[in-house]
BURP domain-containing protein
Amino acid sequence: MGVKFMPWILFLHLLCSYGDQARELAEKENKFLEFALEGGDKISTNIKDIHHEHKHAHVMDHIDPSLMVFFTLKDLKVGTRMPIHFPKRDPSNSPKLWPKEQADSIPFSLNQLPYILKLFSFSPNSPQAIAMQSTLSECETKPIKGEVKFCATSYESMLEFTHRIIGSKSNLQSFATLHQTKSSVTFQNYTILDTLMEIPAPKMVACHTMPYPYAVFYCHSQESENRVYRVLLEGDNKDKVEAMVVCHLDTSQWSPRHVSFQVLGVTPGTSSVCHFFPSDHLIWVPKLQIHGSSSV
């Protein structure tokens, strides 16, 4: 059975989960870049493109381009130009969320991995098996202080978790990054053209895609003040992106080893940390009145 994976995405749930596992998962991501896709195709061409773009971006050469998604709140202003990595994936080739009944009929636990691998016809040492093991391990890892987490294997279970966090009687709305133009470029300098809206987020759930044969979302919420924005970006090649941004105002409890501090050159509690969301990640908030020049 052929499966389309989203290889590098595993470490991105750490954009809001701040533990010492950040660097370890970022290193694992490099291995995921070699995963075989359906039909035996590899994404080595994409890797070369990323390295080529990185070489000419005039940014910190020692930092993985895929980590270039962080900035600070003071930089969130019209005219700011920064290097940003946006993975490009065809939604038609991405794993789909299964109906709850179908997803619940298959074990989703690390101790059942041998059975799951047989079910999907993957050998134990295959790249797919390694990815699945990592996903299951992260889903079963205890949350960090102040975090509530859940791996959703269906749309229904995602909504159930989100309602539990935001409120069972709350109306929900979700937001995602939108690419207005089609391009194969994943890493380049972008300029902020406009802050389209600031989205009130008294409570927020972020859901990040994880590599698995069918869609799995790592959803979590943290007890800290956050701000959510939609901004309009323009790349050096004229790519237009309506990008979702989450800014974490209190970083005092984060691990000093968190990758965002390495990228930004700051320390816990001294600065806000903002980050962009890839297009297949979701932000859930209560449905409230939105302030800004546009709405979803």
User: Anything to note?
Assistant: Helices lie at 22-32, 44-55, 100-104, 113-119, 127-140, 155-166, 259-264. The chain has a mean pLDDT of 79. The radius of gyration is 19 Å.
